[in-house]
Write a structure and sequence with these properties.
Layout: E1 3-11, H1 16-31, E2 35-41, E3 55-61, H2 64-72, H3 74-80, E4 87-95
Antiparallel strand pairs: 1-3, 1-4, 2-3
Protein name: DUF1330 domain-containing protein
Pfam families: DUF1330
Amino acid sequence: MSVYLVSVCEITNMNDSLKSYAQKSAELITKYGGSYVVRGPSIEVLEGDQLNNKSLIIAEFPDVGSIKAFLGGDDYQAIRHLRDGTGIYDIGIFNAAQ
């Protein structure tokens, strides 16, 4: 059953390092068996205000182990610092609906 890596991001400093991080992490997500389902800001916030000025990233993976291998891998750890100081990131793993 698929699992999802979900990130809610408030970008406060879009810079070249963050752009590089986004490109490199996208390649790694593919390498570890993942694919993007959602990537970017909302088209329109319909209710509440918690999504204002936020981007949502959802990547589908085959299992939790693949997500942990991606996040814990040396290749990801080598680029992780590129997003330091660029925003606030809330990240979690979620099961698919059954």
